[in-house]
Amino acid sequence: MRSHKRLMPVALFTAAGAMACADVGGPTTSIISAEPSANVAESGIRRPFYGGFVGELTAVPPFAPGSADECNRNFSGDPAAPGPSVSLFDRASGSFSLTGRVTLTALSCFDPALPTSSGTGTMTAADGAKLFIAFQNTSQPDPADPTRLLAQGPQWVTGGTGRFRNASGRQSCSFVIQLLSPSTGRIEGHCEGFLVTSDR
């Protein structure tokens, strides 16, 4: 129990990357997949893509009610750290260039033995158009405030719907998580990169 309480904030922290962009039903990229950069096509118009968001983050222990099946398998693939992972759920709202106001939802899996997480999600614009995203994040405690976690990592746009159909791109994201309890936190993030869309 003691080790679980110490690891949970780290789990929340690594989830931060997910939040910048996600809903678990959209993309086909596996939550446990490797870096999806090879799948990112760049045919179309490339434009700057940046923005920020604020929301809530919830951590669910392995096999607990509400935990994701993807996270209950061996996430890390590391023989030295086999076993299930913490499920991290993000919900936020914000504003990004090219999309305007957006809602963000994400699911990521955090292996307590590692300071990294991976996940997928969806960014939904006000007109209903969606961007599907995959991400990887690393995290660390804020040395100035033990109740805060800092995370960063890349995100890849892996497709979309509506005006973002067949979109691709990449962003670099950074996040701050204020821990509210061992299983919840407030997340704030900012991302910068590019988005490739078809010419319209």
Describe what you observe in this structure.
The protein is mainly β. It has one domain (2-197). It has one helix at residues 2-19; strands spanning 45-60, 86-96, 100-110, 116-125, 130-142, 145-160, 168-181, 184-197. The chain has an eight-stranded antiparallel beta barrel with strand order 1-2-3-4-5-6-7-8. The protein starts with a helix and ends with a strand.
Please summarize what this structure is.
Helix content is 9%, strand content 52%. The chain is mainly beta and 200 residues long.
Number of folding domains?
A: 1
Rg, alpha carbons:
16 Å
Number of helices: 1
What is the 3D shape? globular
Q: Order of helices and strands, N to C?
A: HEEEEEEEE
What structural class do you assign from the helix and strand content?
Answer: mainly beta
Low-pLDDT sequence parts: 1-34
Whole-number average pLDDT? 80
Strand order of the largest sheet: 1-2-3-4-5-6-7-8
Give the biggest sheet. Answer: 8 strands, antiparallel, barrel
The count of β-strands is 8
Beta content comes to over 45%
Percent in helix = under 10%
